[in-house]
Amino acid sequence: MPEKTYQRGEHYAYPLIIKKLLNTPLIYSPDQEIVYRDKVRYTYKTLYERINRLANGLEALGVKQGETVAVFDYDSHRYLECFFGIPMMGAVLQTVNWRLSADQIVYTINHAEASMILINSDFLPILEGIRDKLETVGKVVLISEDETIPDTKLTTDAVYEEMLDTSAPVYDFPDLDENTKATTFYTTGTTGLPKGVHYSHRQLVLHTLSVAVAVGSYDTIGRFRSDDVYMPITPMFHVHAWGLPYVSTLLGVKQIYPGKYEPEMLLKLIVTEKVTWSHCVPTILQMLVNSPAVKQLDLSRWKVIIGGARLPKGLAKAARDMGIEVYTGYGMSETCPVISLGVPKAHMLDWDEDEKLDIVVKTGLPIPLAEFEVVDENDAALPHDGKSTGEVVLRSPWLTQSYFKSTEKTEELWKNGWLHTGDVGYIDAEGYLQITDRIKDVIKSGGEWVSSLDLENLMSQHEAVVESAAIGVPDEKWGERPAMLVVLKPDFKGKVTGEDLKGYMKTLAGEGKLPKYGVPDRYDLVEEIPKTSVGKLDKKRIRAEYK
Fold first, then answer.
1. Among 113, 273, 334, 456, which one carries the catalytic annotation?
2. How confident is the model at residue 288 (pLDDT cuts 50, 70, 90)?
3. Does the active-site annotation cover 187?
4. Which of 156, 180, 195 represents a domain boundary (last residue)?
5. 147 is catalytic
6. Among 135, 160, 195, where does a domain finish?
7. Is the terminal CB of the chain with fewer CB neighbours within 10 Å at N or C?
8. What pLDDT does residue 118 have?
């Protein structure tokens, strides 16, 4: 599409679109590296050329502005190319959660009306099982790790690398309207069908700029700057890998993409590529800090944002003891996602380590251009006194404005000009938000609320505990009573009992760290706790099993 011709004296209406994010790294750091596992290594100049080739290849296959292109892949340089190339040409990138059930994947692709699928050959069995149920998909592009075409009954229309090799290295990316839809994906974990969230170019650019300021500009811990080495350990299908690939590209940092999550490969890349900055859910960090191999490594350069679930203080301490600098990030699929960061203010940096741990596990301070409040059942704002608890509501210029093709769910999400999160929490006098539960996960015992997250946080500080999950179970007298599933460290199995854990929680109640009525009655020692497709504790499944 040709650029508009401007008349003398007519200003350029600068659109906030994704292609503008590439201008800076191509000037500041064109020769910086982007690495995929131990397979691929190229520069930002090559990234830009491949983005152009991708757009030309997709256009030759018939992709038009406004159409949706669905991607199934691991965290890779190819996915990074799709993060830019697909929306930059005016199409919509759908990041598919390949961990969902087959029926859910069918629903999300049909609901999004995807016209094309780009798919890693590892996921061909999924597509083979659902291809005849996909109503709008016309063409399929195969992503092959070793450039071979596997045996498949599917018809594929191109192979990714061959398509790029045979496509022109220059594409005339248009100056789109900044409100053009750029990305879409589907959020699960509640009852009912997955809900489609979507973001415009403007929202993604503003989110990128705000996160870059939040993580790089303040006098605090864990800062992310152009001399860092970035590696995501959050799937790129999950809320744009929290938007950090866009931030990393804007800053021109060295980027490492690990592909399929394999502990040996993750550790190899962290060490050999000197990774300094990552993000992941608590379960991934838990796996790493409990690995005997990790204990032999120097991880003192590594900074990690933990999101997706509460960062327990016990896990934060275990990471700190290994030299890893961790802090919380908070957001949702509906928030693009980053809203707050659990970083200490400047005057807190000389506090003792235990006090600072209490800060880094908080939900955090709002990042620039984000606002939050806690409200009562009438949507009236509650005091910032560290104890008045209500629903967390949000505002920022990058929150999803609607669920795709779901007016009723959108009305539930947005009320009185605020996005209602379904999270319960409070704000203290310093401005830190602390989420204490999801509304649906609060344990209601005898008319009192017990926070499942507080119970899990306290349990995490027991020396024998790897992880835990607290839920409410039916009780004739009290309505509900808290119960806990607990995974013990290998050295403590057979030595620590449920009664020991109950005694520990009673001691904490005696110290005033939780109300006495909040001490769980039941402690089930288990080998593992059910997780969702993005690594969160699957409370819905746990509650169903305990019914």
1. 334
2. confident
3. yes
4. 195
5. no
6. 195
7. C
8. 98
